[in-house]
Design brief:
This protein has 20 helices and 21 strands. The protein is α/β, with parallel strands linked by helices and 540 residues long. Strand 2 and strand 3 form a beta hairpin. Helix 13 crosses helix 16 and helix 17 crosses helix 18. The chain is elongated. The structure holds threonylcarbamoyladenylate and magnesium ion (MG).
């Protein structure tokens, strides 16, 4: 089959519509990525999409319309829920796909056998003209071979689909560059299944409560079901291996510069280019997420084309706003692996231990011996004053966690967050990444002031994952009896309260397992201080 390149002229759009009307496939431009379109109501036509892409047939397709009235005209849904109407009013035409209860008119082939249908009204004028001219809704997945990065230019489509489809309509480079946000209103609380240009924050502004499907930011474990079938497949991968790297500007460049430059490409920020020795593919300015989204897939494809390149290092995006969509695509391209770096020029010792064991005493000894000390509790308090953190916490726990002046009431937050395991996990998933970033900033600051050995004093160092960035971990443990008395005296609480606090913590084995050094406090202060001093000297 010869693949024709069509323009967006009137005749060519008619030609494309002709192919679609007869049950053929045409790749079309949209504002997100190019789609591989077929008549959504023709089971035969839809089946050939799966064949051309090599896509598993249980992965449902998005149905594209050119006007919201077509939902009724083509009888696409059993119900057009109020929440979906609100979203359509606010975000259509545009990069949002809404999943609703499907009607019987939509064939099973289109929805991968599901009882729901995904609908999108794109804003790209050429896409809408083609839908109108074809006179039917168009099922269209991204027009790439299954598994590779989505195409954002007609050339990308041609590279994947030449000889497999009759035509591609040229429509320039896609403005957004990442696939649409997918939200379902079929769940009790609307749920985002795939993040995109329309952000979780924007959706919450319209609907209030909106959940985020677990598969968006994490790898699903064996046996866990993806709410969106597409989330379970390997995705967005070029042929080269992709590594996601988290760390400061300097740490990223230093790390990548340790690699063989000819076989390495870096997907980086514009400002990194001069510091890097390998092939560079800048995505945009550090804070320009629109540019990064626009350029990401093209850069992944381009990196693959550089001769000799077999490894791609990419700067790890954050997880809020549009960054969430970047992160979601990249974490899949990287097979869910993140390399976490930290600044150069200092050594970081993590200090942790069971409550009441004498961790603070050890911290004081280390400080006297010349270590700079960063107290994670203080950093955590600071995190709670940041607007981005307050926003996420109120989204998760409601406005009642705020004092009348808009600051976080730590007591109320604590009560809510520790009321169930789920809530505690939610709190941690919000605060831990922010605390980690703040710690990193603090280390860099201390380093610039001349510190070369830093202690990170953190009661939940290991639980929060911060131990992974430490060169060494020191745990302080002691007998239960000693701890009990110390906690009661120190915090002026009853035996029961002290016991509850102790029982909420990990046991000694946990600390031994995760640390290189264990300081045992047997109750004699002098002896303990001496042990700590010895260790400090050994570590310096
Ligand atoms: O921007 C886009 O959405 C592009 C352009 C062409 O419109 N299309 C696109 O389609 O990205 P595709 O097939 O690559 O991704 C559709 C995603 C898949 O993850 C699929 O599993 C999910 O939407 N999906 C579709 N219908 C669904 C449904 N009824 N329930 C749950 N997930 C659904
Ligand atoms: Mg796709």
């Amino acid at each position: 089959m010869n693949t024709q390149l069509l323009t967006n002229s009137k005749e060519d759009i008619e030609a494309a519509a002709g192919i679609l009307k007869e049950g053929g496939l045409v790749a079309i431009p949209t504002e997100t990525v190019y789609g591989l379109a077929a008549d959504a109501l023709n089971p035969c036509a839809v089946s050939s999409i799966f064949e051309a892409k090599g896509r598993p047939s249980d992965n449902p397709l998005i149905v594209h319309i050119s006007h919201v009235d077509e939902i009724e005209k083509y009888d696409l849904v059993r119900e057009f829920p109020k929440s979906a109407r609100l979203l359509a009013e606010k975000f259509w035409p545009g990069p949002l796909t809404i999943i609703m209860p499907k009607s019987d008119s939509v064939p099973r082939e289109t929805t991968g056998g599901l009882d729901s249908v995904a609908i999108r009204l794109p804003s790209h004028p050429v896409a809408r003209e083609i839908i109108k001219a074809a006179g039917c809704p168009l099922a269209a997945p991204s027009a790439n071979l299954s598994g590779s990065p989505s195409p954002t230019t007609a050339q990308h489509v041609l590279a994947d689909m030449q000889g497999r489809i009759p035509a591609i309509v040229e429509g320039g480079s896609c403005e957004v560059g990442l696939e649409s946000t997918v939200i379902t209103v079929c769940t009790e609380t609307p749920t985002v299944l795939r993040p995109g240009k329309v952000t979780l924050e924007e959706l919450r502004d319209v609907l209030g409560e909106v959940n985020l499907s677990k598969a968006v930011l994490e790898e699903l474990k064996e046996g866990e079901e993806a709410a969106s079938p597409g989330m379970k497949y390997k995705h967005y991968s070029p042929k080269a291996r992709v590594f996601l790297v988290k760390g400061s500007d300097m740490a990223f460049c230093c790390y990548v510069n340790t690699k063989e430059p000819d076989s390495t490409a870096a997907l980086c920020y514009d400002s990194d280019v001069t510091a890097l020795h390998c092939h560079t593919l800048p995505l945009g300015e550090k804070e320009d997420f629109d540019a990064q989204a626009h350029n990401l897939f093209a850069a992944l494809r381009e990196a693959d084309e550089i001769e000799g390149v077999d490894t791609i290092y990419v700067r790890c995006p954050g997880t809020d706003g549009l960054s969430m969509a970047l992160f979601n695509r990249l974490i899949r391209a990287a097979g869910f692996q993140i390399i976490t770096l930290r600044g150069e020029g200092y050594r970081l010792i993590g200090l942790t231990g069971t409550t009441g064991s004498g961790k603070s005493e050890a911290s004081r000894v280390f400080a006297q011996k010349g270590f700079a000390v960063v107290n994670a509790d203080e950093i955590a308090h600071k995190a709670l004053t940041l607007p981005e953190c307050i926003k996420k916490l109120t989204d998760a726990f409601g406005g009642e966690i705020l004092n009348s002046d808009g600051t976080v009431c730590r007591k109320t937050l604590g009560r809510l967050a520790f009321s169930s395991k789920e809530n505690t996990e939610m709190l941690n998933s919000i605060t831990h990444p922010i605390i980690a970033d703040l710690c990193e900033e603090e280390f860099d600051l201390l380093c610039s002031e001349g510190a070369s050995d830093i202690i990170l004093d953190a009661p939940t160092l290991i639980e929060s994952g911060l131990h992974k960035i430490c060169d060494r971990v020191v745990s302080v443990i002691s007998e239960k009896e000693t701890r009990l008395e110390r906690i009661m005296a120190r915090d002026n609480i009853t035996k029961e309260q002290a016991l509850a606090r102790m029982n909420a913590q990990q046991d000694d084995e946990f600390y031994k397992e995760h640390s290189q050094y264990v300081l045992v406090n047997d109750g004699c202060l002098e002896a303990f201080r001496e042990k700590a001093e010895e260790l400090a000297e050994e570590l310096l």
